[in-house]
Amino acid sequence: MNMRFGVVLAALAFGLSGCKGGGTSGSPSGMPTVTYSVGGTVTGLTGAGLVLRVNGAGNLAIAAGGSFAFASPIPAGTIYTVTVFAQPAGQTCTVANGSGTVTAPVTNIAVTCGVTIGGTVTGLSGTLVLRNNGGNDLTIATNSAFTFSNAVVTGSPYNVRVFSKPSNQSCNVANGSGTVGATNVTNVTVTCAVNGFSIGTVSDPLATQQWHLKNTGQFAFADSGGVADMDINVDPVYSTFGFTGSGVITAVVDTGLEIAHEDLAANVVSGGSWNFLNNTTDPTNTIDADGDHGTSVAGLIAAARNTVGGIGVAPRASLKGFNFLSIATPSVSQFISATGGSSSNPNSSDVHIVNESFGISPTNDTAIIPSVENHLIFGVNQLRGGKGALYVKAAGNGFYDMGVTGNANCFSARATQSLASDGTLTGLSCENANFDPENVVPYQIVVGATNASGVRSSYSSAGSAIWVSAPGGEFGRNAAQFGAGGPAADYQPAMVTTDQSTCAKGYSTNTVQNGSAFDNGAAPNAACNYTNGMNGTSSATPVTVGVIALMLEANPALTWRDVKHILAMTARQIDSGRAAVSIALTGGSYVAEPQWTTNLVGRHFHNWYGFGMVDASAAVNMARTYTAGQFGTFTNTGFIASPTLNFPIPEASAVGVENTLNVPVTAGVQVIEAVQISVNVTHTAVGDLGIELISPSGTRSVVKNIRDGFAKSNDLNGMVLLSNAFYGETAAGNWKIKVVDGEAIDTGTLVSWSIRIFGH
Amino acid sequence: MKFFVVALGLAWAASPVLALEARKPAQDEVAERTALLLTLQRGKQITIGREQYRHLPEVFAAERKGNQTQQHALDAVGAGAAQVLETKGRLVLYRGSAAGTALVARVGASSVYPTVVNLRTQALGVLTGTLIVKPKSFGDAANIASQHGLEPVKEFAHIGTVFYRAKANADIVDLAAALRADPRVETAYPEIIEHVRRPR
Predict the structure, then answer these.
(1) What's the 3-state SS for A296-352?
(2) What are B82-88's contacts with CB under 8 Å, separation 24+?
(3) A656 backbone φψ class: left, alpha, beta (φ>0; ψ -120 to 50)
(4) What ranges in A370-409 are assigned the alpha helix state H?
(5) Are B195 and A371 inside 8 Å of each other by CB?
(6) SS in 3 state form for chain B?
(7) B68 to chain A: nearest residue by CA?
(8) CA nearest A336 in B: which residue?
(9) What pLDDT, on the 0 to 100 scale, is given for residue A12?
(10) Is the Cβ pair B156, A535 closer than 8 Å?
């Protein structure tokens, strides 16, 4: 029976039947209509004047407690709603079980007369649910007076408590219990306050050495310190808002995760991890005695706030570990399973942020595996309830050394490198962040590393695919253990984080020389459960993951693009005076690595840092009040291709060769979120080549620097390169590519190129 | 990253001038590698997207398990005296004493994997025995497996892809070709590990 018909029947029924139990009456069709009585029980009534009403009519005056029934039965299938039409003198009556659909005699309507329970809430930021007497939940979102919907009979107890509260607050109830008298209770006081804390006052003994959280110039058990305030500015997030990443699930896709570690166990999702080597839910490392990278990564995200070790950036975020990097023959299927594509064995489908402190360092043009790209697209579109998972990935550690046998690939880059006056290793990067094909899709947040002095870590690869940078540290050594005479970076702070437990395994052991007293089991690391030597863009990545966890706690509605946008908008421009790297070529000095640039819409960008170093406080502040999803549909122009050009690339010339492609207004993207180009080049040493892209607004981005680690590689065969430097600019107009040969040895041609713009 | 420090320390001590002269050794390395690759027998061709590969019947890969050394891994597959060509993560690529077909073989508790060379980049790759298949209809996945003698590994409906494993003694290159010829299959190719993701 539909509702409209039921109402008609109800109206008719009131006039036709006085039956209290089941009965029948006429209907328009002539068929008898089954009707049922509607009633219940009144308790606690002492005052005069109570009138109940059913379905907006049919008033029933109640003089005393006990059972009641409305005079007119109601047809079966009809919705009934019982309300208090008039309150008795000096009392408040409330109705429980007051509505439903009539299918049998209704006898369970409970009218309770007594007093109301209420009070005031102060200090609330978020949503609070109060519960009285084990039920009657009341949701409160503002600081104001409140009253529970149900009355409590005089002489009965009341007991108000907090059922749920904002994750970053404590809410305490005063005057919350007692026995009600003759008047309404209005003095329940609920006081909420931020669970604020400060890094300087936590009980975690290593926290004050975690310079990436709060840089005071501490040594972090190395031989030298950094520069005060060159940190992620997270202390105000803790002290002002109390955010800790609570409720946010992070996936550590890595070598392992020691799920029982004393400083991690509290945040590990029980049964939520996966060991690909033995198909269990315990990915604790058993194959590498000399360190478990994943356990150290996990500590940077979410080492717990307790009385041991340090703290993670998001010390109450949840951790899941997937030891994908320990598989000897890692399959794409296992990558997908670990990064959100599997809901059982393993279950990664519930993760919010995926930490990818890994990558490849190819020495030639390498394309992304289509299944991987398709999976990432799925992840940002479907995971996290359609708001998109956050994929956060390490840019690479190949500024100086790509780890290739003999390292011959990096000689040309090294020839450009030197120590600047501030001690920073400058010059051209051997590895470009664009070499790793999984870095050149817009679905990743690619992270570079900074050190405790607030400049690029000596190893951190440069490249236009970098979105932001974050602390990754240097090497954390002691000359007494490691030996003196190394570069300054050897003795500058690395990251203090968790290490696989005991002195028999992990980075910290007492069995071999590990380079620092701390990592050799000296106090306060006698149990060797921590390390002061973790570093790399592997470390910058989990630091960024932690910041994103704080942002998502502050505003769970943020989409993946919102998060990227906020990170870009709030990143801190560090090392702002860093000079460009210029190389003398025929035709003049060639700016091979630009200084900080500012694009048409005011976004600062540098290939070393992306939009800058993450600023947790600024990001969380922006996230808290950010209107999610305001960018609309994410789309792209498709690849717009040049014809075959076959333009010779002049050798060792700053002039290079140029070509222009027009992106029409009708291409579907107005505002840029990322730009890809695909390049076909013939050349016998493509490491010589620099490739730059100039936007219609005139913004220049070097997407591949000259003299890089492709030194021994021939040709680019549709190599995809990505730049974030144009973020926010207009897509339409003429885009120019320029290819420069930075050496005078090999020759080649620009065969063709194409451009694809992502945005909205 | 924990093992990078030595390289950095040594490298900064080197004079940049040396780097300018290092180009020729780099080219020599290329020449040596090219010469080595030319001596290797080439087998069947595989095309995946823009890339073309040839099976290398004389080159195999063994995996290091647990704390095994490279030599232990080779010993375990009876190739203790073989010439090691390169490593890819835990995979040790070596030149075998005799040519083989493109199948994953079991030697005791270890596996021996066939390899390929990328004809464009000259990079070596390892055939894992996994085939990546996009059926036109997911409903055909089981029938495709049984007809081609495959074991389903994992299905990912969200990307319309099924991962199968070739059964013992099945030639992976032939299997991929047969799958591509199957009208129920949209795309099919063998999984090749050219690069292994490493911690950073």
Answers:
(1) HHHHHHHCCCCCCCCCCCCCCCEEEEECHHHCCCCCHHHHHHHCCCCECCCECCCCC
(2) B85/B36, B85/B59, B85/B124, B86/A405, B86/B124, B88/B61, B88/B124, B88/B126, B88/B193, B88/B194, B88/B195, B88/B196
(3) left
(4) 370-382
(5) no
(6) CCCCHHHHHHHHHCCHHHHHCCHHHHHHHHHHHHHHHHCCCCCCEEEECCEEEEEEEEEEEEECCCCCCHHHHHHHCCCCCCEEEEEECCEEEEECCCCCCCCCEEECCEEEEEEEEECCCCCEEEEEEEEEEEECCHHHHHHHHHHHCEEEEEEEHHHCEEEEEECCCCCHHHHHHHHHHCCCEEEEEEEEECCCCEEC
(7) A287
(8) B156
(9) 35
(10) no
Both structure tokens of B102: 């493109």
Measured at the alpha carbon of residue A583, what is the angle toward residues A581 and A587, in degrees to the nearest 5?
135
With CB atoms and an 8 Å threshold, state whether A331 touches B163.
yes
CB A323 within 8 A of CB A256: yes
- pLDDT given at position A23: 60
- Phi and psi (nearest 5°) for A356? -120, 80
How many residues does the structure list for chain B? 200
* Sign of the torsion formed by the C-alpha atoms of B134, B136, B140 and B146: negative
Q: What is the pLDDT of residues A522-539, one digit of tens each?
A: 999 999 999 999 999 999
In chain B, which among 165-184 make CB contacts under 8 A with chain A? none
Nearest to B185 by CA among B147, B151, B153: B147
- Candidates B15, B72, B154, B200: best to mutate against A (most CBs of A within 10 A) is B200
| Residue B194 Cα, gap to closest chain A Cα (Å) | 9
pLDDT of residue B4: 40
Q: If you average pLDDT over residues B90-112, what whole number do you get?
A: 93
Q: Tokens 């080597």 identify what position?
A: A277
Neighbours of A363 (CB within 10 A): 25
What pLDDT does A16 receive? Answer: 35
Secondary structure (3-state) at A123: coil
Give the Cα separation of B123 and B56 in Å (integer).
12
Q: Tell me how long chain A is.
A: 760
φ, ψ at A107 (rounded to 5°): -130, 5
Strands A468-471 and A444-450: parallel
Nearest to A359 among B4, B25, B197 (CB): B197
Q: What is the mean pLDDT of residues B43-52?
A: 92
The rounded percent of chain B whose pLDDT value lies above 70 is 85
According to the model, what pLDDT value does residue B38 have?
87
Strand partners, A25: A33
pLDDT at A408: 79
Min distance A587 CA to chain B CA atoms (Å): 21
Q: Is B4 on the interface with A (CB under 8 A)?
A: yes
pLDDT reading at B22 higher than 50: no
Chain B window 55-74: which residues touch A at a Cβ cutoff of 8 Å?
Answer: 63-67
Cis-peptide into A283, omega within 30 deg: no
Using 70 as the pLDDT threshold, list the residues of chain A that sit under it: 1-32, 404-406
Spatial CA neighbour of A536 closest among A398, A709, A705, A355:
A398
Lowest mean pLDDT among A460-464, A545-549, B65-69, B71-75: B65-69
Cβ-proximal residues to A666 (8 Å cutoff; 6+ apart), any chain: none
- Least CA distance to A714: which residue of chain B? B121
- Token digits of residue A688: 């010589």
pTM of the model: 0.89
**pLDDT of the residue at B67:** 80
> Which residues in chain A have Cβ-Cβ distances shorter than 8 Å to B194?
362, 366
Residue of chain A nearest B30, judged by CA positions: A712
Q: Which residues in chain B have their CB less than 8 angstroms from residue A358's CB?
A: 197-200
Pick B12's closest partner by Cβ from A365, A487, A745: A487
> For residue range A123-166, what is the model confidence (pLDDT) as tens digits?
999 999 999 999 999 999 999 999 999 999 999 999 999 999 99
